[in-house]
Amino acid sequence: MTLIVNGEKRPLDLDARVTLFEETVTDAGTGRVANATFGDYLVPVNADIPDMEVVFVGGPDPFNPIGVKGVGEIGLVGMAAAIANAVFHATGRRVRATPITLDLLL
Predict the structure, then answer these.
(1) End-to-end distance of the chain based on CA atoms, in angstroms?
(2) What's the pLDDT score for residue 92?
(3) Residue 50 contacts by C-beta under 8 Å, 6 or more apart in sequence?
(4) Is the predicted pLDDT of residue 35 greater than 70, yes or no?
(5) 23 annotated active-site
(6) Which residue, 7, 12, 15, 70, is the most exposed by fewest CB within 10 angstroms?
(7) Phi-psi region for residue 101, left (φ > 0), alpha (ψ -120 to 50) or beta?
(8) At 24, is the pLDDT very low, low, confident or very high (cuts 50, 70, 90)?
(9) Among residues 8, 22, 23, 73, which one is catalytic?
(10) How many CA atoms are closer than 13 Å to the CA of 102, on its beta-carbon side?
(11) Number of DSSP helices (H) and strands (E) in the chain, helices first
(12) Three-class SS of residue 25?
């Protein structure tokens, strides 16, 4: 289960996407990006991201003019490492590159 503060789902699925899917492939002959379009780029869908529970933390923030609390991008810092550690504990294989794909585990 993933903890979401104030319903912000985007940062968490963003880092899961980066860790598991995103890769820029370049053509060795031309140096150009080979997967420059969404037709060639693997984009996760809803089934790739686990169910999330929205948890509202306390009341409004008295130090913010509109009372909101946010995590921002700081929540992304450890996500890739956490996913890599989960893969290590599940498979016994330490992967030190992203995206973590099956060919790196075999």
Answers:
(1) 27
(2) 93
(3) 1, 2
(4) yes
(5) no
(6) 7
(7) beta
(8) confident
(9) 73
(10) 0
(11) 3, 2
(12) coil
Buried b (16+ CB within 10 A) or exposed e, 81-99: eebbeebeeeeeeebeebe
- Parent domain of 99: 2-105
Would you say residue 47 has pLDDT above 90? no
Tokens of 62: 């008295």
Token duo for residue 12 = 């968490």
Q: Is 54 left (phi over 0), alpha (psi -120 to 50) or beta?
A: beta
Can you tell me the distance from the alpha carbon of 76 to that of 27, in angstroms, rounded to the nearest whole number? 30
> How many domains, the chain?
1
Question: If you ran DSSP here, which 8-state letter would residue 52 be given?
Answer: E
Rg, Å, the chain Cα set: 17
Residue 33 phi, psi (nearest 5): -70, 125
* CATH code for the domain of 67: 3.30.365.10
Q: State the number of CA atoms in the 13 A half-sphere of 45 facing the CB.
A: 1
Burial class from Cβ neighbours inside 10 Å (0-12, 13-18, 19+) for residue 76 reads middle
